[in-house]
Amino acid sequence: MPGRAVPRAAGAPPPGPVPKLTDVYLPKHFAARDRGAVEAFVDGAGAADLVTFDGTKPVASLIPVIWDRSGDTGHGRLLGHLALQNPQWQSVGPDTVALAIVHGPQAYVSPSWYPSTARHGKVVPTWNYVSVHFTGPLTVHRDTEWVREVVSLLTARHEAGRPAPWHVGDAPRDFIDGQLRAIVGVELAIAAVEAKEKLSQNRDAEDRAGALDGLRHEPGAGPAAIAGLMMTLPPPRR
Q1: Is residue 85 part of a domain?
Q2: CA dihedral over 84, 86, 91, 95, signed as positive or negative
Q3: Is residue 91 pLDDT above 70, yes or no?
Q4: What are the DSSP E strand ranges found in the chain?
Q5: 193 in a domain, yes or no?
Q6: How many CB atoms are closer than 10 A to CB 72?
Q7: Is residue 220, in this structure, part of any structural domain at all?
């Protein structure tokens, strides 16, 4: 990505223990297996639900994000932006801790797909999915050049590989300046990353195979994507 690196928030605390908005229910067998796969998943998703507390109630916005892992320590930063007219950023203060949720594919899993249903009937439906939760201090940036760099990074990420990629500099400077004044930048200094893959890891080999076959015959992209992820799992322990 051409251009200068996006500077870190002045005086931002280093990632470390912070009070969290939520704790993810994360049984050991559903914890994501590989940090590299988590990074690729977040990069591919490209957006997150940014959740904060405005003093009265939780508020959330779906925003484009990029996971900046260029630092030498810690988990890095999530960078993105909100509309200036979005009131969420106005309640962000020096002690604000945010939660950002990145969603992946999801699908219903029917007990009728399990061979164990016919043997003992002690089965229930479930929901398979992948998600990543980021928690950390949140900073809002009004500096136009800071926001320009984030928008340029996001644009370069999503335009990469196109036959004729569009660049922020392709539009008139005064037009872009006006657009940038209509948004604010957000920087989440990541203190915790909790990645969950709920992919039937708690089922035996026969039930997993039955779920895979059932998902492959379901309509829509979600079941097919979940089936593909389940295929990457190690065999169940005997």
Answers
A1: yes
A2: negative
A3: yes
A4: 47-53, 58-68, 77-83, 97-109, 126-141, 183-189, 192-198
A5: yes
A6: 4
A7: no
